[in-house]
Amino acid sequence: MPEPLDDTDAATRQGPGRVLITVYAIFALAATARSLEQIATKFHVAPLAFLLSAFAGIVYVVATISLIRGWRRVARITITTEAVGVVVIGAASLIFTSAFPKPTVWSGFGYGYAFVPLVLPFVGLWWLHKTEAVPAA
Length: 137
Hints:
mainly alpha
């Protein structure tokens, strides 16, 4: 079970942290809803792409919840997974274009979403680092 909320966790959710959480929530909703619709109606067209979109949606959901709840370790792991995913899938989608006949949230490094998926995890990791508690001397 993740650790309980404390003052450090509260700092993560204030000011720019609220905007970060809002963007994650929007991406969680958008990516999950889009992938469910694609899987339900046209899975046969691009199964890999649609499953990757579903995975991205799950990552955004977990990142959102972990940021809201102050689960810093879970947030760090999830957001790092997101960063790796967008870079790897982004590169793979440009190299192996036939494997990605339909775009995903992370294909083309998030081109279809104004590159927000590429920038968001690095902003998230920076914010987690910035709001980390400084140990008492």
